[in-house]
Amino acid sequence: MEEENFFEKVYAVARKIPSGRVTSYGAIARYLGAARSARMVGWAMNACNGREDVPAHRVVNRKGVLTGKHHFEGTNLMQQLLENEGVEVEDNQIIDFDILFWDPSDELDTTE
Predict the structure, then answer these.
(1) Fewer Cβ atoms within 10 Å of its own Cβ: the N or the C terminal residue of the chain?
(2) Strand partners, 23
(3) Among 20, 38, 19, which residue's Cα sits nearest to residue 28?
(4) Is residue 64 part of a domain?
(5) Exposure class string for 47-77: b at 16+ Cβ within 10 A, else e
(6) Are residues 104 and 23 in contact, defined by beta-carbon separation less than 8 angstroms?
């Protein structure tokens, strides 16, 4: 039950990532006060299994690599979804990651 609640908190943050921007598993974990739980954020993204209300394609690793791409249907769906939003990807890595990075700790009120 506790894991489910954490996953729902992760999904709530992911829903706030603006189109054309990306964040990392670790950034979401830090925002939620669980800095050492980046891997659990990844599990949450994998567990959402393409729920249309959760833009899991906007969550990448701390270097901007599409590490979760294997959990999307089709070979390049994660990349295609990002590119549809104007995000450039080359060799499974976000181009201009530092510019496109959205940090929930900077962008969201901690009471949200």
Answers:
(1) N
(2) 59
(3) 38
(4) yes
(5) bbeeeeebbbbbbbbeebbbbbbebbeeeee
(6) yes
Does residue 53 lie in a domain region? yes
Query: How is residue 31 written in tokens?
Result: 């925002």
pTM for the predicted model, two decimal places: 0.92
- For 35-83, write each residue's pLDDT tens digit: 999 999 999 999 987 688 999 999 999 999 999 898 888 889 999 999 9
Q: How far apart are CA 28 and CA 44, in angstroms?
A: 11
Query: Is residue 111 domain-resident?
Result: no
pLDDT above 90 as % of the chain: 80
CA dihedral 68, 16, 88, 56 (to 10 degrees): 20
